[in-house]
Amino acid sequence: MFKFFKRVKTVVGSEMNAMLDKAEDPVKMLDQFMRDMENDIREAESAVAKQIANEKMLKRKYDDAQALADKRMQQAEKAIEAGNEDLARRALEDKKNHQEQAEQLKASWERAQTDASNLREKLDEMKKEYQEMKLKKDSLKARAESAKTRTKMNRTMSSIGGDESRQGFERMEEKVMQYEAEADTSDDLSSEARSIDDEFEEMNKKDDVDDELQALKRKMNKE
Known about the structure:
- This protein is mainly α and 223 residues long.
- The protein folds into two domains: 4-160; 167-223.
- The chain has helices at residues 4-12, 14-21, 26-81, 85-159, 163-219.
- Helix 1 packs antiparallel against helix 3 (26-81), helix 1 (4-12) runs parallel beside helix 4 (85-159) and helix 3 (26-81) packs antiparallel against helix 4 (85-159).
- The longest helix is centred in the middle third of the chain and has 75 residues, at 85-159.
- The radius of gyration is 54 Å and the shape is rod-shaped.
- The model has no long low-confidence stretch (mean pLDDT 80).
């Protein structure tokens, strides 16, 4: 029943460290340990309740036996007063039997009382240990969750800029640079094409003016 304390020491000792070193989930294992402790406490509470009930039963039987022994003593005294010695003798004989039973029951009751007291103390110790383990479990769970979160974050951060992601970014950067180069080349070609067209257009404009000038001079006979 009270192997509980050994189990508690195991939880907080080397086996806890071994558990954390293995692939077992510490959070789930801690919850399981707490459930085991709760079961032990329920069993201990049941044992204490039975022992208390046994103590009360023995106390009641002792009280009844002692009360009957006292009653027979009183009856023996009355029988003596009434001059009935034979009745007094029989009352004393019965009183002796009940007194012996009462003494035996008293010894049993006192042992049961001591056992019940010891069991209650152990149960209180178990509950105290349980509360301490519960606080420690909450702390360990928080630490485990924090460690897992940090590990996950570190892995995520280490993957950023990793080979696949970095190569992808580099490819996209090269494409953007290629687009920019193509755009610059297109601007240069467009600018060059516009310059040639502008020169031909300007030349055509001059030819038109010269033609118009000659026509005007002919009209005015100024040639």
